[in-house]
């Protein structure tokens, strides 16, 4: 076992032990271990609520927060986690890992941004360093795609998990060019008006985050997976219909207890702005086809989009069963 694999196993095992130790009263025999390669923030509030609703239906969801999406994906591949959060297209194709995406959580809604003291437009980033969320993430794919479209090449890419972390790094001057979410965009515009410029994106529409799992796990735990998918879709639809519902869910399930007043105030504006990026039907085949177009252009996937097969990347069984019960939106 190489050093990276040992580190991944040790990290996930240690956190899993802490979770188990913190909840000695739990008696479920088969927990659903979810590896989340990010920190819990306002933007993940509806997902955390969906996890709580799945627990109410009898699924012992145990979430481990890891440093990046690629570590979360490796945790699923190595068997240290059952379900991962991310968009592991490159891993699926290049490593042929026995995992499949089964529900789309969000589409890309990001904003490339630069400190105007140094850069003004895309061409100014030629030969410069940029920061993204993690290796293989949607944020990296966007920045690589825009580099290709604008005929530039970065000197390097640094990986800084968490949109809030990258926003703070911009304000502190530690990062000069990166990509943030809508909450970060509002923070930058509020705290430093005119200091930052948001670079244009044209025709970018693809999966930002999805749920994926080992194929054996999906087959052996079909009922639990469907419960989770239904919890997600019903929560997504509730929040999309009324963004105020996200704050109510936070109160109901006592989520993000350490959130600052500023973060709490940002919940409704965030979900109001994020509504177009929240898929109400879990993505499915149409999302997979759109992803093939985007990720082949950006370089995360190899080959022609038309030649890629949905079944090589997605398992639609649970999603189709749930849509059959609750209907499409």
Automatic annotation (TrEMBL):
Domain SsuA/THI5-like: 56-246
Cellular location(s): Periplasm
Keyword Coiled coil: no
The protein's name: NitT/TauT family transport system substrate-binding protein
InterPro entries named in the record: SsuA/THI5
GO cellular component, one term: periplasmic space
PANTHER family linked to this entry: ALIPHATIC SULFONATES-BINDING PROTEIN-RELATED, TAURINE-BINDING PERIPLASMIC PROTEIN
Organism: Mycoplana dimorpha
Keywords: Signal
Signal peptide positions on this chain: 1-29
Presence of the UniProt keyword Signal in the record: yes
Pfam assignment, any one: NMT1
UniProt similarity note: Belongs to the bacterial solute-binding protein SsuA/TauA family.
């Amino acid at each position: 076992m190489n050093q990276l694999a040992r580190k991944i196993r040790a990290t996930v095992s240690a956190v899993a032990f802490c979770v188990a130790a913190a909840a000695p009263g739990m008696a479920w025999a088969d927990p659903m271990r979810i590896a989340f390669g990010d920190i819990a923030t306002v933007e993940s509030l509806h997902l955390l609520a969906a996890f709580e609703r799945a627990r109410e239906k009898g699924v012992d969801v145990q979430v481990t927060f890891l440093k990046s999406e690629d570590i979360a994906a490796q945790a699923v591949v190595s068997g240290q986690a059952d379900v991962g959060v991310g968009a592991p297209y490159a891993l699926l194709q290049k490593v042929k890992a026995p995992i499949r995406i089964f529900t789309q959580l969000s589409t890309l809604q990001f904003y490339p941004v630069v400190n105007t003291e140094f850069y003004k437009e895309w061409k100014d980033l030629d030969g410069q360093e940029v920061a993204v969320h993690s290796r293989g993430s949607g944020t990296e794919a966007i920045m690589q795609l825009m580099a290709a479209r604008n005929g530039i090449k970065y000197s390097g890419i640094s990986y800084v998990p968490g949109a809030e972390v990258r926003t703070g790094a911009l304000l502190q001057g530690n990062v000069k060019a990166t990509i943030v979410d809508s909450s970060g965009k509002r923070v930058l515009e509020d705290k430093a008006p005119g200091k930052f410029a948001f670079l244009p994106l044209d025709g970018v529409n693809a999966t930002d985050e999805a749920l994926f799992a080992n194929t054996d796990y999906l087959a052996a735990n079909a009922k639990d997976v469907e419960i989770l998918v239904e919890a997600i879709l019903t929560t997504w639809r509730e929040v999309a219909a009324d963004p105020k519902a996200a704050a109510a869910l936070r109160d109901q399930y006592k989520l993000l207890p350490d959130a600052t007043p500023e973060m709490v105030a940002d919940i409704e504006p965030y979900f109001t702005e994020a509504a177009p990026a929240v898929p109400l039907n879990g993505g499915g085949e149409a999302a997979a086809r759109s992803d093939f177009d985007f990720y082949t252009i950006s370089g995360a996937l190899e080959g022609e989009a038309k030649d890629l097969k949905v079944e090589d990347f997605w398992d639609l069984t649970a999603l189709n069963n749930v849509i059959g019960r609750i209907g499409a939106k």
